[in-house]
Amino acid sequence: MSIIQDDVVLEHVVLKSNPVYDVDQVEVLRGPQGTLFGRNTTAGIVKFDTIKPGDTYTGRVDASYGSYNTVSLDGGFGGPINDVLSFRVSALYQHRDDWVDNTFAGSSADGTRTPRKDAMGGYNDRNARLQLLLKPNDAFSLLGSVHTRDYDGTSTLFLRNAVTRGSDKVDVPRDRVAYDEAHDNPQAYQTDGGSIKAIYDFGGVSLTSITAYETTSGYSRGDPDGGAAANYPVNGVPNGFGQSMGQIRDLDQYTQELRLASEGDDALQWQVGAFYFDGRDTTDFYQRAYFLQTAARNPNNWVRLRNTNTSWAGFGQLSYKATDALTLTAGLRQTKDSKETRLLKTADTAAGAVTYRGRRDVRMSDTQPSWDLSAMYEINPELSVYARVARGFRGPTIQGRSAVFNSDFTTADSETILSWEAGIKSSLFDNRLRLNVSGFTYTVDDIQLNGNDSDGNGVLFNADKAKAYGLEADLDWRPISNLSLTAGLSLLHSEIHDDRVYAQACALNGVVVCTVNDPTIRVGANTFAQIDGNPLPNAPKYNLNLAARYDIPVGNDGAFFVSTDWNKQGETSFVLYDSTEFRADGNFEGGLKLGYTGGYGAWEVAAFARNITNEKNVKGVIENYMAAVYNEPRVVGVSVNVNWQ
């Protein structure tokens, strides 16, 4: 899934985690995409647009306070400086106290203080953005934006043996861990960036240029085995020591996009463009021996990688209104995607002896077309039908982190997707009911998959293909003026097709620790499971969203209201092979909000609860340690928001 914020693609996972604030609108576009703007993607786009500077003074503040001293302040203010220049200042502050106890009472080889109450789980996230809009005339505009983020908090918490063999149920407390190492799983990142968007209208044709730069540095340290080794002995010996840290020394992302598009309401509309992406980072990976304060310490137990990714693309799209009811659209893109990973430092012995024998410089590159064809037919002003077929492309991928275990890099060649979609869009009963329904099917050839090796390291590989089909529907209904109902449903069936591909199954010290339901083979000390016919990981069979709001008017400009929203997910597998344990079925969460809104919606005060039933849902697993990652706990609080202009 591609993330775009204010027309800038965010590629690295750290950049994708940047919070959004002072938001104007959010768009979700089904993949494949790439013939309109930005970088090509097979999985679709989530596009965030923030509020821009305007010619009148406006502002907004959203503030909330809840459980665990959770604070959120999100706001923005802006307006004209003079006749041609305007500004917008936006900020976000989020905080939560540490709330997870570390109950381990034994000794720690790296100096971690144990036991400790409220040792981890909190965070501080500080963000700010400044935008300036220059508009000297009706033909030209120049929007400049700079932003910064300063984050520190707790990395992902894994809970060892939260998953019980033979069952997909979990019953380990969410607010307690027993970690013997890793100094309470700290992480911190500093991110800065900026962009310039220029638009010039030549009269009938407009030119858009978007230039952007992002940079970040930081680290994330953790105890991925999810528990103290002394608590899980094998033959009387503590088992499962493990901690690691990834540190981005520097990451730089530069993008440039140019688009030339027709303007007006002619039957034929067109757009052509070019896109350039350059991402580079120097990243270190440290393993346990580096951090030890004992004789086993190895100061050389880390690697340094230099990753480079460049992408060039040209794209275009034509849209023709063949009749008043029928619109035809065609798009084409050609992309060259190149990647390189260089090993700058190997993980040597404490005495400095080099033991790594794998590759030190891997380069991959591919050039592929993407395209789409679609038709939209308006049966009447309330009902339209459409169909779309599209081809997408995802470039090759390199994974070099395994070098810290003296294992060779792993790679995956490019994957391509062919997607078919058809559906209806409707707005009925004087716009009181909106119903959209679509069906889809797609095939991914040479699909890129990620498994694990015996060290829990990610291993990239290609399978022959994956096929999927499904249905999506969303409903907005206002049966009476004071009641609004929203529903969304997605159904998905997916299958991996390749009887030659096997994935390493859960194993600790060579012993399989979970229930594998697929055929297996033994290679040395490792067990591999056949994945042919299995669903794609983290792809729920269904996803159901329900929401409702009821207003009780007070006077001419206010109302009491109550709203609720719920989500439920169908059966979901977290791994490539079929396992009894590493799946979830029927996970759900709900929220409730009661409040008062006044001034014709200009302000609101409310009480709220998220995860109101305090469900404990598994969101991910570490297989060899039977460890789980949970969802957020219940948070109850109050909120205030104000909008003015």
TrEMBL record:
Domain TonB-dependent receptor-like beta-barrel: 156-607
Any GO BP: iron ion transport
Domain of life: Bacteria
GO CC terms of this entry: cell outer membrane
Main localisation: membrane
Keywords: Cell outer membrane, Ion transport, Iron, Iron transport, Membrane, Receptor, TonB box, Transmembrane, Transmembrane beta strand, Transport
Compartments it resides in: Cell outer membrane
Coiled coil: none
Membrane topology qualifier: Multi-pass membrane protein
Record Pfam families: TonB_dep_Rec_b-barrel
KW Membrane (keyword) present: yes
Entry protein name: TonB-dependent outer membrane receptor
